[in-house]
Design a protein that fits this description.
- With about 140 residues, the chain is an alpha+beta fold.
- It has two domains: about 5-85, F0F1 ATP synthase delta/epsilon subunit, N-terminal (ATP Synthase, domain 1), CATH 2.60.15; about 90-135, ATP synthase delta/epsilon subunit, C-terminal domain (Single alpha-helices involved in coiled-coils or other helix-helix interfaces, Up-down Bundle).
- The chain contains two helices and eight strands, in the order ββββββββαα.
- The protein has helices spanning about 90-105, 115-135, and strands spanning about 5-10, 15-20, 20-25, 30-35, 40-45, 50-55, 55-70, 75-85.
- Strands 1, 2, 3, 4, 5, 6, 7 and 8 form an eight-stranded mixed beta sheet that branches.
- Helix 1 (about 90-105) runs antiparallel to helix 2 (about 115-135).
- The relative contact order is 0.18.
- The mean pLDDT is about 90.
């Protein structure tokens, strides 16, 4: 089977740079998949789970916000953060989810708009971490 080169890069450095069979990513317009020799393509990435298949194994990464580009049989993700599902501390992610939910409940008024936006982003990251960890452990 033909492969595509996958690159995931965060501000702290590369997370993966390897050939894979297929990549599925959380685009802002919806989840999308990319195989070898895909047409050039750009997308914004939302917080969620990126998966890729390599050597008949599916691996999962939690990614938060960024961009992707497909070009010349390579897909590159420039994201704020990325963590392998197997490396995620689920208990810590659950605590972060609970904190974010409490902050959301407290930030109901319009004057708390900034706190609400931050809490929503924290909640999305926590949920994505939990989902990536669950998928990786299946």
């Amino acid at each position: 089977m033909a492969q595509i080169h996958l690159e995931v890069v965060t501000p702290t450095g590369p997370v993966i740079s390897d050939d894979v069979d297929i990549v599925t990513a959380p685009g802002v317009g919806g989840e999308f998949g990319v195989l070898a020799n895909h047409a050039p393509f750009l997308s914004t990435i939302k917080t969620g789970t990126l998966s890729f298949k390599q050597d008949k194994q599916t691996k999962y990464l939690m990614v938060s916000g960024g961009f992707s580009e497909v070009s010349n049989n390579q897909i590159t993700f420039l994201v704020e953060s990325a963590e392998y599902g197997n490396d995620i501390d689920v208990d810590r992610a659950m605590l972060a989810k609970e904190r974010a939910e409490k902050r959301l409940a407290q930030a109901q008024s319009q004057s708390e708009k900034l706190n609400r936006v931050r809490a929503e982003a924290a909640l999305q990251r926590a949920l994505a971490r939990i989902r990536a960890a669950e998928l990786a452990r299946q």
